[in-house]
Amino acid sequence: MNDEVRPHNEAATEAPQSTAIPPAGQPAAGQPPGAQPRVRFDTSNLKSSYCNVCNATSTREEVVVNFGINQTWDMQQRDLDVQLLHRVILSPYAAKRLHDLLGKLIKEHESRYGELR
Asked: Between β-strands 63-70 and 53-58, what pairing exists: parallel, antiparallel or unpaired?
């Protein structure tokens, strides 16, 4: 599968679309052998939410990433209240691809706006 990444605003302006991806190693109908399939993202059910907390755990078979919001605004408070909103469960292979993708994204961000510390 081609890991095509689109800027956030580009996906939001297109009409919802989806397509079946042929099995690995087989070109899509009408494409020459060796051609990469085109990936179309179906955004018809896409929801966006802000999260400022993330944690992750893993087993041999999966990586679990939780996203949420820190509800504690008082910096003097000892305990933090975090509302978990999303849980994403990935295979280790998908987690590795996400790691690589995020690394590239941060590198591009820092080249444009300066180093994140």
From this structure: antiparallel
